[in-house]
Amino acid sequence: ADVVIEAAPEKVDLKLALLAEVETHAPAGAVIASNTSALSITELAAVLKTPGRMGGMHFFNPVYRMKLVEIVRALETTPETIAVME
C-alpha cells in the first residue's frame, strides 16, 4: 500500500500501539495517516521511526457524501507526505 490510514477509536494508547505495528509492515515509502479528529498528530508521529511519513487525514461524515478531507501536518511531516495526502 502507498498510503495506510489508521481509523481506530480515539484512545491514544491504542493508536500509538497500532501505528508502531503498522510501520513494521508498511512499505518504507508508504505514507501513514491517522483519521483522528482530536489527538495530536505530532504525538502520534513520535512513535514512528520515520515520523516524517505521518500526517492526519480527517474524513468528515458521511464520508460518501462529504467531499472534504482535513489534512494535518505534524511537526516532522515532510512536504512529500503532504503532497501524497493532497
Strand order in the sheet with the most strands:
1-2-3-4
Order of helices and strands: EHEHEEH
How many β-strands, per DSSP? 4
Gross morphology is globular
Number of helices: 3
Strand fraction: 15-25%
For the terminal residues, how far apart are their CA atoms? 16 Å
- Nearest-angstrom radius of gyration? 12 Å
Share of helix among residues? 25-40%
Q: What does it look like?
A:
The chain is of the alpha/beta class and 86 residues long. Helix content is 30%, strand content 22%. It contains three helices and four strands. Strands 1-2-3-4 form a four-stranded mixed sheet. Helix 1 (12-25) links the parallel strand 1 and strand 2. The chain is globular and about 35 Å long.
Descriptive terms for the model:
globular; 30% helix; four-stranded mixed beta sheet; alpha/beta; 86 residues
